[in-house]
Design brief:
single chain, 748 residues, alpha/beta, Recoverin, domain 1, Elongation Factor Tu (Ef-tu), domain 3, 4 domains, six-stranded antiparallel β-sheet, six-stranded parallel β-sheet, 30 helices, 14 strands
């Protein structure tokens, strides 16, 4: 409860908010109330409005609003439960306070409707039809689509549990008794309207930035040490080169110092993109020391450093040439910059000209490498301007007499990697055996696996499909397990220009193109029927569905099998690297399965070996809505069945599903629905939303509780692996730092 001073402050705050929402008449009508509540459906807004409108005037005054909100915010548990009961007791609600659909349902639901109550109250009990109506609106509010028979099952489960005396209706006391079985509901019972006008809780901020905390430095020690070493090396190179020319001119000393740093950084840029070498290094002890997972971020950072050094290098030379032009008097500054002069530097004295050309190319490359260009459907611009690195390296060799010494090793390795990749491509294209168009615009490609293609769970490949774009190569995580010998799986979400083209290409109906498209559905029979229709063109279909891959390349998820307690967190399509890992675990389970020849009792040997030290895996999948779960449910169902058969305890792999659009048990608009879903899941041993045994939790994870439970299990050193949006990664990283867990993020 609040103090008197807090109550007064809250009243002033509510009065101010009310003034912003109410019209000139200082009354809130139904439409203004709906807008303020920000509900998806109008049913609950209309129910709350009818209950708040105590005098039945059709509008809510400040006095009525404050009285109702005070009851919900500061009232007793009984007061809040009474309000919840009145929301579900739909009988007697005036027709003018219900939408046409709600009014129609009210008429169908109540065989003997009570007289309209101006305060929005009902008959004093909840019958099955009323409960079904409210649960139906709860489903809509939570963006959950279930068939009518499932709604009937939910209604029956909740009604049977709450109707203690089997009288055919639920009384207030029976509802209270049933809610006591859900303590988390009783603790958090609130309402959207109360939160809407509740003063915001002040955010507690630490006096120290997180970058200065001991935990941050401990968890990022390898990255910080690497950055420190990188900065120190640049400073050393600059100082040594500048001191050699300090007697000639200050500007020349700066230019030479920057030039030496550029020799190193331009070569280092190439080294950071040696993907095959980095993949090999991940399997060595060096991976524990160097932050190999951050190589793309460091590549971007070094790119900015190169541009800054190049600008300073050019500016210092221009300033020095300007000084020489003033001293000489015979040659203008333009001659120093645009004419080849022996002794200036570079091949044939062309250092000035090659330097200006390099500066222009670097600016163009950086400008067209920005995220706004790459992710706005102009990938070709990024791709072709980035190919200018070939011209830049040639110009650097012509420009700087010592650059080749720095570049020879990374340059040769880079060229070797390109030759290997080109050899893979020249070996011939791979057939796309099957294409499944899945919900949420996900394209599932089943590609024939090359004979000597070896990869680890979580690895990715670069994919090129000439029919979509001849020169574009895009990285995608392999979603099949390495133990799957014949095919590779890629699950590709339609988010950008290329991925949307891919989905639309395979979505084209038959007959819309003179040449048959390789379209197939998840059922093999449909694909066979289509090929039978094509007849002699079957080989043409296969040839048309051709692709090239370059890889595989390693990711941070390679560390999972050497963890003791791994927490895998995928958001949306971010599940794809973990799909491969979870399938690989399933294959290893099968391989270790033992059976007694006499009694046929089967058991699974300990999973831990030299390649796999896992004791526990927690898999967390967060999706926005129901349909986003559909395209991987079959895999997760198999995993659950496999573990149930081979490990009845089922504690090695735990799944946690979260649906962010669904309202939680603390929201009055979803309390009944979530209780019904819990009861039905316990009864059927199956979740109504996904069909899994694992219950789908509404809302977003409470990371403090999730990681707190992980820490309590004490299964060994905890490592958290995440694939999803950068915003969520930042949140999870902060919680990992708090609990002392190591955090690994796959670049998304």
């Amino acid at each position: 409860t609040m103090s008197t001073a807090e109550d007064a402050e809250w009243l002033r705050w509510v009065t101010k908010q009310f003034g912003n929402i109410a019209g000139e008449d200082k009354e809130i009508n139904l439409e203004e109330f709906k807008t303020a509540l920000q509900v998806k459906e109008s049913f609950f807004a209309e129910r709350f409005f009818a209950l708040f409108d105590s005098d039945g005037s059709g509008s809510i005054s400040l006095e009525e609003l404050l009285k109702a909100l005070s009851l919900l915010v500061h009232g007793s548990e009984t007061d809040k439960l009474r309000f919840l009961f009145q929301v579900y007791d739909v009988d007697g609600v005036p027709h003018n306070s219900l939408s046409p659909l709600a009014a129609e349902r009210r008429g169908l639901c109540s065989t003997q409707p009570a007289a309209p109550n101006p305060a929005g109250g009902g008959s004093g009990s909840i019958d099955p039809d009323e409960l079904r109506v409210v649960l139906g609106w709860c489903l809509r509010e939570s963006a959950i689509a279930l068939p009518e028979e499932r709604l009937a099952d939910l209604t029956l489960a909740l009604f049977e549990a709450a109707d203690k005396d089997h009288s055919g209706s639920i009384t207030f006391e029976e509802l209270r008794e049933e809610l006591e079985a859900f303590p988390e509901v009783m603790e958090n019972l609130t309402i959207s309207a109360a939160n809407w006008l509740k003063p915001p809780v002040p955010v507690e901020r630490s006096c120290r930035p997180r970058y200065l905390t001991r935990t941050y430095w401990h968890n990022h020690r390898s990255k910080l040490a690497f950055l420190g070493g990188y900065a120190a090396l640049n400073l050393l190179l600059f100082t040594l080169a500048a001191l050699q020319h300090a007697g000639l001119s200050g500007w020349l000393a700066v230019a030479r110092g920057c030039g030496q740093c550029l020799n190193f950084n331009c070569s280092f840029l190439a080294a950071l993109m040696l993907r095959r070498c980095l993949t090999w290094l991940r399997a060595t002890p060096i991976a524990k020391v160097l932050p190999l997972d951050q190589h793309v971020v460091f590549h971007q950072l070094v790119g900015y450093v190169v541009l800054a050094l190049a600008a300073l290098h050019t500016g210092a030379h221009v300033a020095n040439f300007s000084r020489l032009a003033r001293q000489d008097g015979r040659h203008a500054l333009a001659e120093y910059l645009l004419s080849a002069r022996p002794g200036v530097g570079g091949l044939g004295g062309t250092a000035s000209q090659t330097g200006l050309a390099l500066q222009g190319l670097l600016v163009a490359m950086l400008a067209f490498s920005s995220p706004c260009v790459r992710r706005s459907g102009h990938f070709e611009v990024f791709y072709w301007t980035h190919l200018s690195y070939i011209s830049i390296w040639i110009l650097l060799i012509l420009h700087g007499p010592h650059f080749w010494k720095w570049f020879v090793v990374p340059g040769c390795l880079f060229m070797l990697e390109k030759v290997v990749g080109l050899a893979w491509r020249r070996a011939g294209g791979l057939r796309i055996i099957e294409v499944n168009l899945l919900p949420s615009k996900v394209t599932h490609l089943v590609i024939e696996r090359p004979q000597f293609f070896h990869y680890k769970p979580g690895d990715y490949v670069y994919l090129n499909i000439p029919a979509i774009a001849t020169y574009e190569w895009h990285p995608f995580t392999i979603s099949s397990a390495p133990e799957q010998q014949e095919t590779l799986w890629l699950h590709i979400r339609s988010l950008g220009q290329w991925t949307n083209k891919l989905y639309e290409y395979f979505q084209q109906p038959e007959g819309s193109s003179p040449e048959p498209k390789p379209l197939s559905r998840s059922l093999r029979e449909k694909r066979r029927r289509r090929w039978v229709q094509v007849g002699a063109n079957r080989s043409q279909v296969s040839a048309k569905a051709e692709c090239y891959i370059d890889g595989p390349y390693g990711t941070p998820t390679r560390r999972i099998f050497t963890s003791e307690h791994a927490v895998l967190i995928g958001a949306g399509i971010g599940i794809t690297p973990f799909a491969s890992i979870l399938q690989s675990i399933m294959y290893r389970y099968r391989r270790r399965r033992q059976s007694c020849p006499s009694c046929h009792y089967s058991w699974c040997e300990d999973l831990r070996d030299e390649e796999m030290t896992l004791r526990k895996v927690d898999f967390i999948w967060i999706n926005r809505d129901q349909k986003h779960f559909e395209w991987f449910i079959s895999l997760l169902t198999k995993l659950e069945m496999e573990q149930a058969e081979q490990d009845p305890g089922g504690q090695f792999l735990e799944m946690h599903m979260y649906m962010t659009s669904a309202l939680g048990k603390s929201d009055m608009k979803a309390i009944g629905l979530q209780m019904a879903l819990d009861l039905l899941a316990a009864k059927e041993q199956k979740d109504s939303i996904t069909g899994l045994r694992t219950r789908t939790q509404p809302g977003r994870p409470d990371w403090s509780k999730v990681f707190g439970k992980v820490a309590e299990e004490k299964k060994g050193k905890v490592q958290v692996f995440f694939c999803g949006s950068p915003a969520l990664a930042k949140v999870i990283r902060g919680h990992c730092e708090h609990f002392g867990f190591r955090f690994f993020k796959e670049n998304f």
